[in-house]
Amino acid sequence: MSVTHIILKKGRDKSIRAKHPWIFSGAIQHIKGEPAAGDTVEVYSQNGDILGLGAWSPESQIQVRMWKMGKGKIDREFFKQRIESALQQRATIGITHLNTAFRIINAESDGIPGMVVDKMGDWIIMQCLSTGANHWKNDIAEILMELTGCRGVYERSDVAIRKKEGLQETKGCLKGEEPPAHIDILEEGRHYRVDVVNGHKTGFYLDQRDNRSLVGHYAKEKTVLNCFSYTGGFAIAAALGKAKHITSIDASSHALEHAQQAYELNKLASKQTKNICGDVFKLLREYDHAGKRFDMIILDPPKFAENRSQIKKAARGYKDINRLGFKLLNPGGLLFTFSCSGLIDANLFQKIVSDAALDAGCDGQIIHKLAQASDHPTRLAFPEGFYLKGLVCQKIIS
Ligand code: SAH
After folding, report:
1. Are residues 47 and 138 in the same domain?
2. Rg of the chain over CA atoms, in angstroms?
3. Which residue numbers delimit the PUA domain (predicted)?
């Protein structure tokens, strides 16, 4: 069977030549062939230059995601090389020897569009978000078994975004052994308990690793309020950083049970931590009315904006919790505030936080601007890969 040729409209080759990996349906002039979903296609400019090879996704607005620029072949060896490079890059920046859990493949930014691969102890958790990634998942799972010596590869493609690619949600073991009910991981000296089968995303928010370390750095002798705690990620970082006391709030009792087990794994004194199952919006108001104050507050909410129509509502949600956060801080206190909504960019987020301080009747300074951890890189030509923004604000003393 001959390979399908995709010929782009005049001028639409520019972004591909600049190494952006997406081709939208509107950029395509002509399709020579009848590719099936996930097939490799060759992409040409209007004047016949070969631009590269990509995966065909007929149901998505992004109809081709590029595997590589220029000529070549997309086969098992191609993916093996990409994964080897990604592992080597993580080793070079010191991720692999300090952590038993880290992101191996960060989709487009690691040259495998739509594919997320996380190592969680002896298991690998994979998420396939595009038809191309889905097409190659079994080969990639085999390669991962070979290269990492892991005990199994488990797929967590139970995400709604797959619909846009015409794919069903799915989860289950792809290769090797089924993962156990929980996996204990070590992150820069911190122990965590991860439920890779039923937890969020691939089980743990690896993207906050560097920010957790920063929380640990500032926590000494402070009273900490950790909002949207999940399994205690920031709480453990603060506790090991010798915080005086940490209150963690989350709506999920299951997540908080794992947090409690992780406190024990870290041998924390039971009086140092407290978990509260409840609604952050409601509890922050109650704390304010009761006159409670903290030295450090962490706000790491779930994604408030899933699409453009939700941006305004999301902005109101961020402003509300940040306003309450500023009110509950002691003078000189630190607010660690995050947004993982890709649709709220860094400038808008900063504006929201600034307005929140104004409404709280106080002022603050930004002492750090934060981002996703270094094993979640953003390819230079792919700014869409950047999604996690954080600010550390210090409340002005007078
Ligand atoms: N900070 C965590 C990740 C937070 S994920 C870490 O570093 O691992 C977001 C969490 O917010 C989820 O655990 C979810 O259960 C919780 N959540 C969502 N809405 C909430 C609400 N209104 N009140 C309390 N918790 C909420």
Report:
1. no
2. 23
3. 4-80
Question: What is the CATH number for 148?
Answer: 3.30.750.80
**Which of 195, 228, 280 should be mutated for ligand 1, with most atoms under 8 A from CB?**
228
- Say yes or no: CB of residue 237 within 6 Å of ligand 1: no
- Whether this model's pTM surpasses 0.85: yes
Asked whether the predicted pLDDT for residue 398 surpasses 90, the reply is no
Does the structure show a pLDDT above 70 at 263? yes
Length of the chain, in residues:
398
Which of 190, 212, 250 maximizes ligand 1 atoms within 8 Å of its Cβ, making it the mutation to test the pocket? 250
**Residue 1 has what pLDDT?**
57
Answer yes or no: do 10 and 151 share one domain.
Answer: no
Residue linked to tokens 């595009």: 130
Q: Indicate if ligand 1 lies below 6 Å from the C-beta of 59.
A: no
The answer to whether 203 touches 195, Cβ cutoff 8 Å, is: yes
Give yes or no for residue 142 having a pLDDT over 90: yes
Whether 215 and 342 share a structural domain: yes
pLDDT over 90 (residue 305): no
Q: Using CA atoms, how far apart are residues 52 and 17, in angstroms rounded to an integer?
A: 9
Give CA–CA dist 71/52, Å, rounded: 6
Parallel, antiparallel, or unpaired for β 50-56 and 62-69? antiparallel
Q: Which domain holds residue 39?
A: 4-69
Question: Stretch 292-302: mean pLDDT, rounded?
Answer: 98
Position 276 in a domain: yes
d(CA 197, ligand 1 centre) in Å: 18
Predicted confidence at residue 209, as pLDDT, reads: 98
Cα 70 to ligand 1 centroid, rounded to whole Å:
43
